Amino acid sequence: MKDIKSMFLPELEEEMKNLNQPRFRAGQIFAWLHKTYVTSFSEMTNIPKALQEKLSKEYTFPVLRIERVQESALDGTRKYLFALGDGNLIESVFMRYHHGNSVCVSTQVGCRMGCRFCASTIDGLVRSLEPSEILEQVYRIEKDTGETVSNLVLMGSGEPLDNYENVIRFIRLISDENGKNMSRRNITLSTCGLTDRIRALAKEDLPITLALSLHASDNETRKALMPIANRYSLDEVLAACDDYFKMTGRRVSYEYSVVRGVNDTKDAADRLGKLLKGKNAHVNLIPVNKVEERSFERPDAVTVQAFQNELEKFGINATIRREMGSDIDGACGQLRRRHLKESDSMTKGETTV
Ligand code: SAH
Fold it and tell me: d(Cα 264, Cα 307) in Å, to the nearest integer?
């Protein structure tokens, strides 16, 4: 069975041609999938019954099931745990900002990048998501909330550039004018720094924002936090980001998770300032979220503030990430882990508290 929701409109037109159907059927089906977000072929009411049946025999499309939702009493942030068709679980987050609603999507079940402070990578990579499964996170959330999502960050579980083809297809589909038509300028892709893929992304002609997870201003510290730093040096990954800016004109964001006693010193801030000085850069300081299985702690607010001030001396625009939904499982991957642990202990006959 072919996944009809991961197809571009011209591909769908080709399929209709092979089924001896008029070309406009493709447009109708595309709209049902990407504008109305139907969950079955039988809801496609302007498609003749016989064709609906034929389609359901040859094609399929995933519909994510909401397994759990946590809503923050503080700011209305909603964290979704979705079940995929094969039973795997993924997380997505819905956030309300003054500039519009934003969703953070996962691109893989688990992750194989191994960043030391991250919950998503603890059990490694299970599998990559299909384009349709990434789309579904946004579509289901729009249906569930009844609100429009105008901004998107690829910052959930998984490394987007490790699922390159599907992620690019997802971005093209969600910004297709015949579908949801999300502005590409409102999309941010975050990577731990797969440098060759950053270079490939720059050539895709997609005006999205690139965010690099930097987290250190020297190679040794970066290696201690992120295994990917053994493959690409800071110089290499930063050069790729510079080229990304040159080719796309899009300002690059640098994420820096501040970890107490690891990368939070004045020296570290100075080095970061020197590395990024003169670039059209924005630094996002993220006090590290505590992950149960990890020992990393966030510095106190004064230290984070001092780090920001130090960067500003170099003329670097830096913001401290406002924590959304701090009363619900914070760091990426934690809701899924907790849920898995709970169902595991339940099947073992233990009680959960
Ligand atoms: N794989 C991609 C995107 C997913 S993570 C990447 O590495 O960029 C999104 C951001 O959250 C990354 O900057 C990641 O390093 C950061 N992050 C992960 N776990 C975190 C934690 N416990 N505390 C703070 N930031 C974290």
Answer: 7
Reply yes or no on whether 332 is catalytic: yes
Answer whether 118 contacts ligand 1 (Cβ < 6 A): yes
Is 271 exposed, middle or buried (CB count within 10 Å of its CB: 0-12, 13-18, 19+)? middle
Q: In degrees, to the nearest 5, what angle opens at C-alpha 118 toward C-alphas 67 and 72? A: 45
Residue nearest atom 22 in ligand 1 by C-alpha distance:
289
Total Cβ atoms within 10 A of residue 317: 14
Q: Which position among 104, 115, 241, 332 bears the catalytic label?
A: 332
pLDDT in tens, 47-101: 999 999 999 999 999 999 999 999 998 888 999 999 999 999 999 999 999 999 9
**Is residue 91 annotated as part of the catalytic site, yes or no?**
yes
Ligand 1 atom closest to the Cα of residue 211 is: 8
Give CA–CA dist 332/57, Å, rounded. Answer: 37
Helix (H, G, I), strand (E, B), or coil: what is residue 71? strand
Which of the residues 15, 91, 130, 133 is marked catalytic? 91
Report CA(215)–ligand 1 centroid distance (Å): 9
**Does the global pTM surpass 0.85?**
yes
Q: Is the CB of 106 under 6 A from ligand 1?
A: no
Which domains, ranges and CATH numbers included, belong to the chain? 2-60 (1.10.150.530), 65-344 (3.20.20.70)
Q: Is pLDDT of 235 > 60?
A: yes
Does residue 139 carry a pLDDT above 50?
yes
Cα 191 to chain centroid, rounded? 9
What pLDDT does 337 receive? 75
CA-294 nearest atom, ligand 1:
22
Question: By C-alpha distance, which of 88, 87, 38, 80 is closest to 61?
Answer: 38
Q: Residue whose CA is closest, atom 5 of ligand 1?
A: 155
Residues in Cβ contact with 119 at an 8 Å cutoff, skipping those fewer than 6 apart = 291, 292, 293, 294, 331, 332, 333, 334, 337
Rounded Cα distance between 263 and 269, Å, is 8
Report the alpha-carbon distance of residue 206 to residue 187 in Å, rounded.
10
